[in-house]
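Slide 14.
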Amino acid sequence: MAALAVAALSARWLAESARRGGREAIALDIFGDVDTRRAARAWLPIGEASALRIDGARFVGALREVADRCEGWVAGPGFESLGSIAAAAAQCLPLLGNDRETTARVRDPRRFFALLQTLGVAFPEVRWQAPTQPRGWLCKDPTGSGGWHIRRATDAAVPPPGAYFQREIAGLPASALFIADGTRSAILGHNELLVTAHGARPFVYRGAIGPIDLPGTLRVRLQAALDRIVAATALRGLGSFDFVCDGERFYALEINPRPSATMALYDADYPQGLLAAHVAACRRRELPAVRQARAVRAQAIVFAPRTVRVARSEALLALGCRDVPPPGTMVPAGAPLCSVTAAASTAAQVRAELARRADRVIARV
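Slide 15: predicted structure.
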């Protein structure tokens, strides 16, 4: 069986899922972490970690280099701003995922929010020009990911090209990990998104906990809304539906039409891994039977409290860390250092264990 090229800002969890399904992966990302390289047959860089952004030209070059060893490639987080490389990438390897037009239906904010309005799905108020009274509004760059692109409108002196403004609302930031076959969808789990202020950026994604309990009526409404969106857009494969919930109400924020990092919370519950399910949904319109999670799991990014030189990667691995940089890596203050994971029977227990593990890492460095 030919390998899969898995590409993302960090591709470790995609490579591990491929290995769970008995398939080799070639990882393309910007970090080249120790455990990513161990999970993959090979690793190629597609950008500089310091930039936290994929370089389109380097990515296409890497894809061309591995094309004779792979049957296709899978896109993870980080490709939101690289729509222009779709044609060049397609000449190298077929994408196992949503094509450029399908992706645009949910990633272009004007098209997406117009669709939500047509389908009767609630979302926070959106404006395309800066509000005259910016307090209570957010400025968002649709090409960003991980919350790094979100600013309060009061702080966005010069909005980036294509930015839009959205009313800030209170509630729990959450997501639904789903898989779709172009006409219908199955939600694999609901997750709390761990979002925190990081420097001047108020809403940076730090990790997730899942599955979480949601009211039954809310689950039904989320599934119904997602099914309408999938039927209208022909989405296929794994994706995430981000929303804010308040009791039994929810407000849609965005659809990420590609495998989400939250799939790592559920991958172990599927004997062949969820990447295999993604490929089957994209190629054959097959959806897996949804399995009940065997535990509540969590993952969180640990940011370097100061500039850190990683002397011994094994010391971090011994603490149970993931996404561990190679020895000699210089990690600037405030940049992702590694991640920690935890599992327990309740969300409260897993949250406490996650905090303890993150504290141990900070103490170590």
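Speaker note: The two ends are 42 Å apart (CA to CA).
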